[in-house]
Amino acid sequence: MEPVHIIGAGLAGSEAAWQIARAGVPVVLHEMRPGTGTFAHKTGDCAEMVCSNSFRSDDDVMNAVGQLHWEMRNADGLIMAMADRHRLPAGGALAVDREAFSQAVTAALRAEPLIEIQGGEISELPESGNWIIATGPLTSDKLAQSIRSVTGTDALAFFDAIAPIVHADTIDMSIAWEQSRYDKGDTEEERRAYINCPMTKDQYEAFIDALLAAEKTEFHEGETAGYFDGCLPIEVMAERGRETLRHGPMKPVGLTNAHMPEQKAYAVVQLRRDNALGTLYNIVGFQTKMKYGAQTEVFRMIPGLQDASFARLGGIHRNSFLNSPTLLDDRMRLRRRPNLRFAGQVTGVEGYVESAAMGLLAGRMAAAQAKGHDLPPPAITTAMGALVNHITGGAEAKTFQPMNVNFGLFPPLPDVKSGRRGRKDRYPAYTQRAKDDFSAWLAAQ
Fold first, then answer.
1. 14 vs 85, 223, 345, CA distance in Å?
2. What's the Rg (C-alpha) of the chain?
3. Can you give the residue ranges of the MnmG N-terminal domain (predicted)?
4. Same domain, yes or no, for 172 and 296?
5. How many C-beta atoms lie closer than 10 Å to residue 21's C-beta?
C-alpha cells in the first residue's frame, strides 16, 4: 500500500499521521524543523505549541470547544490524549505543560511502526500521490509561493501575536494572589490555577498611556496589519478605546483580592501556569507587538510584576491561510489538485483544538482513500462537522477570516428558546445532538 504523505508536523499534521497509522495505512510525516526554523518555533518536536498553552474550555455540555474536545477524545485523538496526560490546573479550561506535551506527541509518533518522520523542507506541491498539507500559519515562503501558483490566488494573511512568559519566582505574591475566576474548578488546585495582579484606576490609566506610547514592531512595505479578533495584540485593543482591556483580558469580575478582600480592583491582569513545575506563567490575553525593551518597561508597571523576569517576550508574525470556501471541497481536497488535502490553521480555522480536529478529519479521509473508500465529513450538527462545513463552503468567501468553533456554526434546533436566556437549555441540546451524531459517524466507519 502506498503511504500517505503529510507536510508539517504541527498539531494538525501530527494528529493526521496518528489517525492514518491507526487505520493501518503507512504514512510519511515531513517536517522541516529544526533544519529550517521559523520565527516562533524553538524546537524540532512535533506539535510544538507557540502562542499559548491553553486548549480553552473543557466543558462538553455548555461549550462548543469542549464538545470538540469530546469528539476528538472519542475518535482516539492523539492530541487530546497527550493533552489530558500533561494537563495543568486551569479552572474550567484545559491547559498543558507545552514542552512535555510536544515531547510526548513526538515520542508516540516515533514509536508507531507505520509512521516515518522525515526531515527537510518541501518547497513544491506534489503533482501525484495522496498528500496532506498541514504547514500551518508559518508555511515556508517557497511552499507558500507554490500554493499561490497552483491555486491561482494570493493566500490571505493576518498577523498573529504571542504573549510573554514570566518566571514564577519573580512575581510578588504579597501583591498578587492565586484564584480562578468565579473560583471555577473541582479541586482547590483548579480553583487557584491563576495568579492575579490588581490595578487601581490610576494604575490602569498609567498602564494604558504607556501601552499606547510604547514603540511597536514595524511592518515591512506592502504588509497589511490585519488581525484575527481572537488574538489581538493588547495595543490594538487599547487603541479601540481606553476601557477595552478592562472589559477584555483585564476584566476584574469574579475575583476577590486575597490581601484586601474589601477592596475591588479596577482591573486585573491574570497569569496562567505554563509548565508542570509551576515555574513559568504566561500573561493571559497579552499578545503584543511592542518592541522587547518597551515590553519589559510596560509590563513591569503591573503591580506584582515590578521585578518580573521574562522567560520569553511577546512577538508578532505573519499568519497565512487559504480562502478555503473557494478552494477546498468538503473532503478538504484542493479542487484543482484533488490529490492534495489541506488541514489545520492554513485552512482558516483558529485555535490549537480546531487545527488538530481538521488534522484528524483529513487523516481519516486520506486513510479511507488509501483503502479505496470515501469518507464523508461528520454531520454539520457536530462540532467537527460544523467547523469543516464553515471553512469549505458555509462561510462567505469575500469576508472569510479564521474561525474558532462556536455554537453559531451549528444548525438551529426547533422548539428551543433563542437568545441569551435560552442558552442554559439550548447549549446542552446542541451538545447532546452533536454527541449522538458524531457517535453515529464513528460507528459507520
1. 17, 31, 13
2. 22
3. 4-373
4. yes
5. 23
Q: What is the pLDDT of residues 141-158, one digit of tens each?
A: 788 888 888 887 655 555
Q: Which of 297, 318, 339 is the last residue of a domain?
A: 318
Is there a binding annotation on residue 308?
no
Our count of domains for the chain comes to: 2
Report d(CA 256, CA 253) in Å as an integer. 9
Residue 404 neighbours by CB under 8 Å, 6+ apart? 65, 230, 349, 350, 351, 354
Range of the structural domain that residue 14 is part of: 4-155+322-443
Residues 360 and 313 in one domain: no
Rounded alpha-carbon distances, angstroms, from residue 359 to 85, 173, 195, 329, 363: 20, 41, 34, 15, 6
Instruction: State yes or no: 11 annotated in a binding site.
Output: yes
Q: Above 80 in pLDDT, residue 73? A: yes
| Contact status, residue 359 vs residue 409, Cβ threshold 8 Å | no
CA distance linking residue 110 with residue 227, whole number of Å: 36
Calpha distance 339→366 (Å, rounded): 9
Q: Is the pLDDT of residue 317 over 80?
A: no
**Binding residue per annotation — 440?**
no
Tell me: do 174 and 292 sit in the same domain.
Answer: yes
Distance between CA atoms of 46 and 12, rounded to whole angstroms?
10
| CA–CA dist 163, 186 (Å, integer) | 27
Q: How far is CA 106 from CA 15, 47, 72, 78, in A?
A: 11, 8, 18, 10
Would the annotation count 163 as a binding residue? no
pLDDT of residue 221: 39
12 is in an annotated binding site: yes
Q: Are residues 100 and 176 in the same domain?
A: no
Same domain, residue pair 197 and 299:
yes
Q: Residues 31, 150: contact at Cβ < 8 Å?
A: no
Average pLDDT, the chain: 89
120 is in an annotated binding site: no
